[in-house]
Structure prediction request, 78 residues.
Amino acid sequence: MPNLTKTLILSDRTHRHLGRFAKGTMGGGAAPLPGGFWLVPVDDEVSARINEMRQGSESDDQVIWREMCASFFKETDQ
Prediction:
């Protein structure tokens, strides 16, 4: 198991859909936060990849949601 050294704050919507549509296995350990958010541990590689994909001042949640939507629509167009 990778060393989970970083955390992301994801909305309930993103966390729920990521769990349903992610390819591969999501590690456990996500903790609910007040207001419908989740604290999700990730490794350095995942954190770095999110930072590479970030556009402007997007939050981690916005980056992941945008990429999930783009991937979903790309797959349905094929």
Observations:
- The helical segments are 12-21, 44-53, 60-77.
- The chain has a mean pLDDT of 84.
